[in-house]
Amino acid sequence: MADFLTTAEKLEQFRERDAKVNAMGGPKMLEKQKNLGKMTARERIDVFFDKGTFVEIDKFVTHHSTFFGMDKREVPADAVVCGYGKVDGRTVFIFSQDFTSMGGSMGEWQANKICKILEMAMAMGAPVVGFNDSGGARIQEGMFSLSGYGKIFFRNTRASGVVPQITCIMGPTAGGAVYSPAIMDYIFMVKGYGQMYITGPEVIKAATGEIITNEELGGAVTHTKISGYAHWACEDDTDCIARVKELLSYLPSSNREKPPVYPCEDPADRCEEKLNTFIPNSSNRVFNMRNLIKLVVDNGEILEVMKDYAPNMLTLFARMNGQTIGIIANQPQMMSGCLDVNCSDKAARHIRFCDCFNIPIVTFVDVPGFLPGKGQEWGGIIRHGAKMLFAYSEATVPKITVIVRKAYGGSYMAMCSKDMGPDMVIAWPTAQIAVMGAEGAANIVWRKDIAAAEDPEAKRAELVQAYDELFNNPYIAASKGHIDCVLEPKLTRPTIISALDAFKDKVDKLPWKKHGNIPL
Q1: Shared domain check, 212 and 123
Q2: Judgement on whether residues 53 and 172 belong to the same structural domain of the protein
Q3: Residue 371: inside a domain, yes or no?
Q4: Which of 129-138, 274-283, 390-399 has the lowest mean pLDDT?
Q5: Averaged pLDDT, 256-285
Q6: Are strands 80-87 and 55-57 parallel, antiparallel or unpaired?
Q7: Do 240 and 348 share a domain, yes or no?
Q8: Is position 199 within any domain?
């Protein structure tokens, strides 16, 4: 039996269908998207992947709904472009919502496409990146749309710790749509366009009378500075995509690999004389820990995570002799580097991500204690601080702790003291390892002697100095094996690199368990 169409006609039919899907929401909607200053779903993909490497999956899938006249409405690719390609030569899977097609709304088959991408990424051991730009659930599909969200959440959770998952909020993301990004590892938001909230301004106004704009409620600055929900605020789509590619360069493709190692021209044995005079003479004076770290890592280059949230704690990626490391560090410039509720969460999350993906952790310590006050106590500082203790204890990657100055009390435990399982604890001669500062300790230990003295203030000063000379140094701790190495600060870089090399094949198996129960 002869075919009704010739081969040439079939090819022409394919080209017409292909062009129709490529046209997305049509010229009018594409123009509207561009007038807003936003890229289209396909333009974002073109910028993201190495040229000519993108392969689209499920291009001709569309919705199956017949409700509310949907049987007469076409939604090209069901408003999401899915596939895989190469980023700097490495495979990455992607889904990119198309706002020009029915507002990028989530329908049953859009969800099915995203689920397939997540499953493929897990099977292949490659990162997943999502470009979110959607009006939310497709109301015309009712519970089928909600079911789609649930399927995605389930797969996001199963993929957690298996492959890196990154979300870019490049348009509206509201209601149930916010929870897929929340489960994923990192969130980038585009200022002015990317917004996330459970209930929008109109609902809030009706329910509470409060008047607030979309950007104030759930914009990039709000979530990177106040809520801590997002990690980076980006200027536009181009900036966002560039930053995602930078992050990927630090990460392995999956938990089955170690991070990529890059050629390094910064000498591994470089001694940095500036470090010898970096710490102020007075323990009450602050310094910039970020600048200290830049003197240690390759070429002074860092990628800071959540820079604007809980700035008393630094969470960074960097390289040492070309190898990716994760960094946790107190920032004395902010709240004297004290630990509080928010910075504890920030640090614990970073520690756990690094451990998931075989990234060694280097901790720089200058911590005077937990932030005092009823606000912190009522806010759950005990529970939140315990997250850091749990995260460090559970982490099996190489861990190195560098004490540059204060390491006081329980906050030092939370910053990966020797008892929390680091492979090496390094201290500078400026390190002060004690239960608390000299003045507070003297006031407690010698309270009666000070009160009975003819000149209490002179006696207090004498005893503070005595305590300081006895305990506020690294040598008692080193004499009992709580410090592995006291060294000249200028030798910090070569010492860390040597330790990373020594511990690179470390095997540290946890007791068998289904999973631990972190104090959430």
Answers
A1: yes
A2: yes
A3: yes
A4: 129-138
A5: 95
A6: antiparallel
A7: no
A8: yes
Q: Once rounded to an integer, what is the mean pLDDT over residues 303-328?
A: 98
In terms of domains, do 66 and 169 share one? yes
CATH number for the domain that contains residue 181 = 3.90.226.10
pTM, 2 dp: 0.93
Q: Please, which contacts does 2-11 make with residues 24 or more away whose CB atoms are closer than 8 Å?
A: none
Instruction: Judge if 354 and 370 occupy the same domain.
Output: yes
Report whether 253 contacts 127 (CB < 8 A). Answer: yes
Beta bridge partners of 93: 84, 128
Same domain, 16 and 129: yes
Please provide the DSSP assignment of 169-228 as one string. E-SEEEGGGGHHHHHSSEEEEETTT-EEESS-HHHHHHHH-----HHHHH-HHIIIIII-
Tokens representing residue 253 in the block: 């493709």
CA 135 to CA 29: how far, in whole Å? 14
Residue 163 Cα distances to 302, 331, 352, angstroms = 22, 30, 14
Task: Return the H-helix or E-strand segment holding 158.
Answer: helix 143-159
Q: pLDDT class for 83, splitting at 50, 70, 90?
A: very high
Helix H or strand E segment including 31: helix 27-35
**Residue 150 pLDDT > 80, yes or no?**
yes
- Provide the number of structural domains found in the chain: 3
Do 431 and 487 share a structural domain? yes
Judged against a pLDDT cut of 80, whether residue 277 lies above it is answered with yes
CB atoms within 10 A of CB 95: 25
Distance CA 387, CA 148 (A): 32
The range of the structural domain enclosing residue 460 comes to 438-471
pLDDT of residue 448 exceeding 80: no
Domain presence at residue 261: no
Q: Is the pLDDT of residue 466 over 70?
A: yes
Assess if residue 46 is contained within a domain: yes
* DSSP codes, 316-368: EEEEETTEEEEEEEE-TTTGGG-B-HHHHHHHHHHHHHHHHTT--EEEEEEE-
User: What distance in Å separates the CA atoms of residue 220 and residue 183, rounded to the nearest whole number?
Assistant: 18
Mean pLDDT of 201-215: 91
At residue 434 the predicted structure's pLDDT band, cuts being 50, 70 and 90, is: confident
Q: Could you tell me if 246 and 324 lie in one domain?
A: no
pLDDT tens, position by position, 237-260:
999 999 999 999 999 999 999 999
Assign 505 to helix, strand or coil: coil
Residue 345 near residue 388, CB atoms below 8 Å: no
